[in-house]
Amino acid sequence: MTGRCELRLNCSAMPDRAKPLRHALGAFLRAIEIDADVAMDILTAVGETVVNVIEHAYGHVARSSSGLVEVVALAEKAQPLRVDVIDGGAFVHRRVPRPGHGFGLRIVRAIARDVSIDANDTGTHVKMLFDLSDPRDP
Amino acid sequence: MNAGRGIAVLQLSGELEIGRKQEIRDNLQLRGGEESVLVDCSNVTYADSTALAELLRFRGEAERRNVPVAILIRSRQFARIVQYAGLGETFEIFEDRGEALSYLAGGRTP
After folding, report:
1. What is the ipTM of this complex?
2. Contacts of B64 in chain A (CB under 8 A)
3. Residue B102 CB: number of other CB atoms within 10 A?
4. Which residues pair with A82 in a beta bridge?
5. CA–CA separation, B12 and B17 (whole Å)
6. What is the pLDDT of residues B26-71, one digit of tens each?
7. Do A103 and A94 contact (CB within 8 A), yes or no?
């Protein structure tokens, strides 16, 4: 990859939007020649962040398609890949996850080099940095 | 579908994600009479935490009825997300169908 490449996706935070968002990001990662295994993990982490927005950010409002989710991926030569997931809803953090819930952030933290969450009255901005080499490689 | 010896087989395929939550839940149900269940995810290409939550719910329901469950997973992404979620020791996971069926038929040692 040379130079700087940015992908910006914006759509309703609805359950049926998660798949096309993920596939669009997958196409971007292939186009900039990210290793397939690394890309798989990035898609898993970003996918979980988007699922969190769909499930929690807007509550019942998401069902009426008025809530939005934005995904911005920024790739620069010799830099970790940055992916931001932005919404205009509320961040839900459970200190004690309910059984069968609360895996999303754990999965994201297991994959990303760094995760930061900026939540305020106007919405939530999750910033993730991903190394572009597979740490499982010898 | 039945694999014999009282083993019911539930098939899931494609991308198991939030957009299919209800479909996944509808598929992961005990019908009654099963001695054990193989959840065959060998044709699953992607899974998210929605799928993990539904598998965990199903496993809990089966455990309450004393019905052993094995899960067949061949997708690298699926196998990895199970580990990332910290569920590697929670589910009885197999890559090989024969080994999964042997386990359910009575071996019970994954």
Report:
1. 0.90
2. none
3. 16
4. A74, A129
5. 12
6. 999 999 989 999 999 999 999 999 999 999 999 999 999 999 999 9
7. no
B31's tokens: 């019908």
For residue A87, give the H/E element and its range: strand A81-87
Mutation target among A44, A56, A69, A108 for the B interface, most CBs of B within 10 A: A44
pTM: 0.89
Judge: B48–A47 Cβ closer than 8 Å, yes or no: yes
Give the model confidence (pLDDT) of A7-43 as tens digits.
999 999 999 999 999 999 999 999 999 999 999 999 9
A115, with CB counted inside 10 A (0-12, 13-18, 19+), is middle
- What integer is the mean pLDDT of B74-87? 97
Rounded to the nearest 5 degrees, what angle is found at the Cα of B12, between the Cα atoms of B6 and B18? Answer: 135
Classify B77 as helix, strand or coil: helix
Q: Tell if the CB–CB gap between B19 and A110 is shorter than 8 Å.
A: no
Query: At residue A74, does pLDDT exceed 80?
Result: yes
Under the phi-then-psi rule, with left for phi > 0, alpha for psi from -120 to 50, and beta for the rest, what region is A103?
alpha
For chain B, the average pLDDT equals 93
**CB A40 to CB B76 under 8 A?**
yes
Token duo for residue A81: 């890949």
A53 at the B interface (CB within 8 A)?
no
